[in-house]
Specification:
Layout (H helix, E strand, L loop, with lengths): L1 H23 L4 E7 L3 H17 L2 E7 L5 H5 L1
């Protein structure tokens, strides 16, 4: 049941993305900001990007060093 539901949801999301692109000329996107070099966080971001690719969502990364201050991050 889980795999079936997963496939069904992916198809729904993909058709929704295609409708946005063809109907409005809008490509949805996901931007990630990763501060530091945590392997688990990198894996999480990589999995999110793969999921985006499967349904046609544009994804972009922003990597910042661990020393990045909160002020730098906000700006």
């Amino acid at each position: 049941m889980g795999k079936f539901l997963q496939r069904k949801l992916k198809m729904k999301w993909k058709s929704g993305v295609e409708a946005l692109v063809s109907g409005r000329g809008v490509t949805p996107g996901l931007a990630t900001v990763l501060v530091g070099d945590d392997p688990a966080s990198k894996m999480y971001v990589r999995l999110k990007h793969k999921a985006c690719e499967r349904v046609g969502i544009r994804a972009e990364d922003h990597f910042l060093p661990a020393e990045t201050s909160q002020e730098e991050l906000i700006s």
